[in-house]
Predict the structure of Carboxymethylenebutenolidase homolog.
Amino acid sequence: MANEAAPCPCDIGDKMDYGGRGKEIQIEHINAYLTKPSVKTEKAVIVIQDIFGWRLPNTRYMTDMLAQNGYMAICPDFFVGKDPWNPTNDWSTFQEWLKDKQPTKINKEADVVLKYLKEQCNVTKIAVIGFCWGGVATHHLILHCPELKAGVSVYGIIRDSEHRYHLHSPTLFIFGENDSVIPLDQVTTLQKKLQESCSVDFNVKIFPGQTHGFVHRKREDVNPEDKPYIEEARTDLLNWLKKYV
């Protein structure tokens, strides 16, 4: 899921063999994966899953990476118990599967998670980062939730909203040059329109030679030619959060 109006022929890529450092919790009607940093913090990051769901080991790895960098990191199940996309599914059924999992229809769940972080975890600064489907959801939340301090949308873009360039908070957009799901003309249009309309800081960064999913669904240990780009993108997103959260 790269934009809200087009199918996403996503390859799951290099699925990690990773158990995680955090724990699963229940927040009202939502399950979530929560990882706490080693020291007390007032900063939190909401991590939004891709189409393969909140239990994908790669996404939990990214959630734990954020916690290791000092953030309360939480990855809720924004599908709310519905089955994630299975790599063995027939892609011709994707639009039907997506009907009740729209990344722009998550406000209720986001409000529940924000309330939990503020009231139960005592955090005062909250950012959001999302991958693929979650990148679209991140773009959506940054447009509609001013209390978020920053956003990082990783290969995700809202394409059809009239107000999609009016970001409330500083946002980093990360794309791969060879992403078959998000054409470069969409990315260059995003950058141009943000330059014309956006009143907050933003950055649209394209990584040479990279494909959809490279930041969290490529393993740097088995893709040595891609390792510098994977590491650079992860450093970029951490630096963005450090700057604004």
Notes: The beta strands are 23-27, 30-35, 43-48, 72-76, 125-131, 150-154, 171-176, 202-207.
